[in-house]
Design goal:
By secondary structure, this protein is α+β, with helices and mostly antiparallel strands. It folds into two domains: about 15-110, no CATH class; about 120-285, no CATH class. Helices cover about 50% and strands about 10% of the residues. The chain is built from eleven helices and four strands. The chain has helices at about 15-20, 25-35, 85-95, 105-110, 120-125, 135-145, 170-180, 195-210, 215-240, 245-265, 270-280, and strands spanning about 40-45, 50-55, 60-65, 70-75. Strands 1-2-3-4 form a four-stranded antiparallel beta sheet. A hairpin with a 3-residue loop joins β1 (about 40-45) and β2 (about 50-55). α6 runs antiparallel to α8 (about 195-210). The protein is elongated. The chain starts with 13 loop residues before the first helix and ends in a 5-residue tail after the last helix. Residues about 1-10 have low confidence and may be disordered.
Length: about 290
């Protein structure tokens, strides 16, 4: 023990402070910027650094330690945990004799890329009828800042997949009841389960449409009205529709409506089907 001699302060690592809060892709881009000489350190000491990084424009990036954390600012559009901060952190650490994290450490600690991209989400909304329903299921969890623990729901209710089996209203109503029952789970969350609930509805509508050729048109018109009524309950009572997921349910309802309308002239009970389609039209604005 050395009496009267101050122990040397442990040097803080800027990389360690940023790594676990930065996406892996951003980190790798930051490493590339650091290695390609795109960073000019203007001023630094053990507590703070000011630098300019050459990206699309010349961005000013500032990092400074605050207690056990790190204060950050970058003039780029991303502004937080961006590749410019990563590049500056790497070079600032190295100037102070601290090695950058190894590739293995980066892979294990950086935030992995989301399973879906914003482009995937935009594509789904642009064409709801043909959307990849897994995008709807995953969107909230991947992009919410702090997902709550919640139930994981089936992709679809039990439904006869035999394409040559005529549909019945009873069969479809059972599917709606099964979807509704999921909302009674103790870990059900109106917001974070919304995508899965809406995807299950759309999955069921797609199965209904796949069996259209072998089903009675009048029965299909009754099924359409049943689906419309359940859709209202789903969107208004069972889920939080903050993200506008009703666009997907409505698109699938309209798809079935259009297919039934094309077949009206092929049947004798034309008036009954037309009346049901008229009811459907009258209730479009209920939502």
């Amino acid at each position: 023990m050395f009496v009267g001699v101050d122990k040397p302060a442990i040097m803080q690592s800027a990389c360690d402070s940023l790594l676990y809060r930065t996406y892996l892709e951003s980190w790798k881009k930051g490493e590339k910027y650091a290695d390609e000489g795109k960073v000019e350190i203007e001023k630094f000491d053990d507590k703070s650094v000011i630098a300019h990084v050459a990206g699309t424009k010349l961005y000013e990036t500032k990092l400074s330690f605050r207690g056990s954390g790190i204060s950050r600012n970058c003039s780029c559009p991303v502004s937080d945990f961006c590749k410019h901060m990563v590049a500056v952190a790497i070079l600032w650490d190295e100037l102070r004799g601290i090695q950058r994290p190894t590739a293995v450490v980066v892979e294990s600690k950086a935030i992995p890329p989301p399973l879906i991209s914003r482009a995937d989400i935009n594509k789904a909304y642009a064409d709801p009828v043909n959307a990849d329903l897994n995008v709807i299921r995953l969107a909230v969890d991947d992009y919410a800042l702090s997902p709550r623990p919640h139930a994981r729901l089936p992709n679809a209710p039990h439904f006869d997949a035999n394409l040559k089996q005529p549909l019945t209203l009873t069969e479809v109503k059972k599917a709606w009841s099964e979807i509704k029952s999921w909302s009674r789970k103790s870990t059900y969350d109106y917001y974070f389960c919304a995508g899965e609930m809406v995807a299950a509805f759309c999955e069921t509508m797609r199965m209904i449409i796949s069996r259209l050729e072998y089903s009675d048109i009048l029965e299909l018109a009754k099924i359409l009205r049943s689906a419309q009524k359940f859709h209202y309950e789903l969107i208004m009572e069972l889920v939080d529709d903050s993200d506008g997921l009703h666009e997907f349910t409505e698109a699938h309802l309209d798809e079935l409506y259009g297919l039934i309308k094309k077949k009206i002239n092929q049947i004798e009970e034309k008036n009954k089907v037309e009346n049901l389609l008229k009811e459907f039209d009258e209730h479009r604005d209920d939502y």
